[in-house]
User: Fold this.
Amino acid sequence: MNAAPITFEFTGVWRDEVLANGPVQPGDTFSGSFFYDPNAAVIKFHGNSVSGEDTAYVFSPGSAGVELRVNT
Assistant:
């Protein structure tokens, strides 16, 4: 199968105060992207004792990732 790499772009405003003592503060904006290359996916099937079979999608290094940029 030949498929083009997939990229999902997102933006938002940080609202959580969990990191209030750090450099990221509520109201800071962020943007980012998630990407993966379907051609670089390797599908592996594993047996287990619960359902009998698990499926794992494994990507070669550099073929999938997340980038996040925060404007503080």
Observations:
- The mean pLDDT is 77.
- The first strand starts at residue 6 and ends at 13.
- Residues 6-71 form one domain.
- Strands lie at 6-13, 29-36, 41-46, 54-59, 64-71.
